[in-house]
Amino acid sequence: MQPDFESIRRRVNELKVEHRDLDDIVARLALEPGQDQLQLQRLKKRKLLLKDQILHLERQLSPDILA
To answer: What is the pTM of this model?
Structure first.
């Protein structure tokens, strides 16, 4: 069964938007004095998780090419 490439592409785009939004939030929160460091860490971990998911899905879209 072949993966549905269009749905994978859509999901990748959704994850990229969420990652970019989180990046903006983290940057803004980091500038605020007295910001909750635990909250920042959680947001950064979420960003890493999103990045891993994006890379995993993008690998599904790229064929394996042997050199």
So the answer is: 0.82
